[in-house]
Each structure stands twice: as structure tokens, then as C-alpha cells.
Amino acid sequence: xxxxxxxxxxxxxxxxxxxxxxxxxxxxxxxxxxxxxxxxxxxxxxxxxxxxxxxxxxxxxxxxxxxxxxxxxxxxxxxxxxxxxxxxxxxxxxxxxxxxxxxxxxxxxxxxxxxxxxxxxxxxxxxxxxxxxxxxxxxxxxxxxxxxxxxxxxxxxxxxxxxxxxxxxxxxxxxxxxxxxxxxxxxxxxxxxxxxxxxxxxxxxxxxxxxxxxxxxxxxxxxxxxxxxxxxxxxxxxxxxxxxxxxxxxxxxxxxxxxxxxxxxxxxxxxxxxxxxxxxxxxxxxxxxxxxxxxxxxxxxxxxxxxxxxxxxxxxxxxxxxxxxxxxxxxxxxxxxxxxxxxxxxxxxxxxxxxxxxxxxxxxxxxxxxxxxxxxxxxxxxxxxxxxxx
Length: 390
Prior knowledge:
Layout: E1 5-8, H1 14-19, E2 23-25, E3 40-45, E4 48-54, E5 60-66, H2 73-86, H3 88-91, E6 97-102, E7 111-116, E8 119-124, H4 133-143, E9 148-154, E10 160-167, E11 174-178, E12 181-185, H5 200-207, E13 214-218, H6 224-231, E14 236-241, H7 244-256, E15 265-268, H8 271-280, E16 285-290, H9 302-318, E17 320-330, H10 337-351, E18 353-361, E19 380-388
Parallel strand pairs: 1-3, 8-9, 13-14, 13-16, 14-15, 16-17
Antiparallel strand pairs: 2-5, 3-4, 4-5, 6-7, 7-8, 9-10, 11-12, 17-19, 18-19
Helix pairs in contact: 2-4, 5-6, 8-9, 9-10
């Protein structure tokens, strides 16, 4: 790790830093301060002291890693072991794929590690954390009985690739267990690290609601919500996604769980177009799940994201049978839980429905959120009953 430099921050940040907030934004750094990306910074703010890793490019200039000592191999090992012990809450359910390290929530900011059976996938969100990776890889291999550790590395054109960091590469396809459901995952080509692990509890929740219902799953990806609905006794499941490859995987996952995919429907189409067409044909569903990708990558895109949520949920509510159930999700961190519910209320008004919120959830326990870092709660999942106007 590069020799550390010292930085004195404005006094108004002391309460936030002393409370445990792990970020210092660039516009809070005094003009003229210079350091290289990945350099350790000894931070001072009044009587408060801490250590952070500097990022020359990000809006988050400093990620605070410790308040007591500079990080070293033992410091990283302790963080990794604490995170592993917390995941006992997940492993006891028989689930074999989950998030082992959730960045700031596990006090390893800018780093996530997902586990698929005996294989760990590491993703970093800032080059500033690169100095920690050698220690991290060693700690992962020491703490858990792994066969391989890989890194998902972004390419310049926006795609990503899987690189071996320790042990051996995983097979092209891994079958994982999740709350009584089996799913195939391709760690080389799947979105995120292979699956969207953060909806695990929400998928299980949908299973308990699906009995004898006609279900519509929008932005279905590889069919996690769809399969859980089928396992819950859904009469018929329609899965819609713009990716034909994802829907092919969804069909495979139906077969893997003992269902005939031909008894259900898989629609390769833009979700907005599908909903417009379905509404024009007066197609209605008892249970609709709408889990779109993130609509914003920065705070500047927040208003556009809220507009997109209002539009897609208006369309989704129009094809929900009056009195039916509507599950809406958002993974856009720039949209707060309150803003998301407000957007749902606007969508309901436009769709001529009254929403009765029955369940309001977020991410599961393997995605912990520091009390001092509400930005870590990015996932919103709201189940409502769509009542007619009367």
C-alpha cells in the first residue's frame, strides 16, 4: 500500500464520520488536496481520526475503511470472518448462493463477494480498493472451503469478464439451491455475478401468494420469481423479458424444478410494448411482479428514473385484475423508499386504482445496511392490492 498522506476535513463532517458514515464526497474535500487512487489517507476531522482509500475520479473521493488502524492482512481477515459468521443465517435455510461481502454493510467499502456453492465471485466498485484485494483473496480462501475465487472485471465497452484469482474456474453452469428452488447459473455470462441474489426472500414471499393465480412476471430474467410462483401452485405463469437467452434459461429452470415449460408462457419482448399490447387486448392477471433493472446510475438521472417507474407501474397496474396483487420493485439507489412509494401512488392514480400496501421490504440479511449509511438500502419491494375506484 502506498505511503499514506494526511487530510484535514471541515468540522461539519465530524458528526457524520464519528457516526460511522463510510463516504466522503469530493466536494467536501478542501481544494488543492492531492493523492493517487488507492493511496491510504489518514483523515482528521476535529478530534475524530480515521483511515480511507482515495479515489481520483469518483464522486466518492474517500471510502473510510477504519477508525482505529491502517488496514493490513489481519484487519481484512477479521472483516471477512465476521461477514462469514453472519451468513450462518442464510446457510441454515439450505441456500447455496448468497452475498458473502456486501461492501459498506460489512465494512469493506467498494467490494462485494457472492458465493455460488464452492466458488466466490469478487466485484469491486472503485479502483481505490485494489490495494486490499491480495489480502481479501487470501482471507476468502482461508475462511471458507472454496474451490475457486474469481473476479468479475469490467471491460471498456461496458461488458465484463470472469478472471481466476485463486484455485480453479467454476464450471460453465452451476445449479444452486434457494429456499426449495433450484436455479441454473452461468457465472461467465449472467448479469451481476450470475443471479440477482438480493431478491431471495422476496421470491420466497411470492411463492406463498401464488396458489391458483394467473401470474405475470415482468423483466423475468432467468425466471426466479416465475419458478417460485409455479412452486407455490400458480395456475399459469407468463414471463416477459427482452432477452431471448434469459428466457431460454427460465424455461430450463422450470424443467429443473419439475414443471413443463410448455404449460406456461415465455414472451421475448420489450416490457413496455408487451404491457401496451396486453392492455389493448384486455388481458388481466391475478398477480403481477414488476422488477425492472436500475433506471439511474447517478443522482442526475433520478427524475428520469422516477418517470420510468411511474410509467411501467401504470402499465402494470392496468393489466392487474381489480382486487389483484401487484408487486413492484426498485434497485435504483438514487430513489428512496418514500420516493418509490410516491411514484407508485402516482401510477395508481393514472391507472385508476387504489393501492393498499400489504408488505414493504428490502434486501435480505446477507445485504446488511449500516445504521449510519442509509444509502446502503437500495432495494425496495412493495406488495399491494390493486383496488378498483368505487
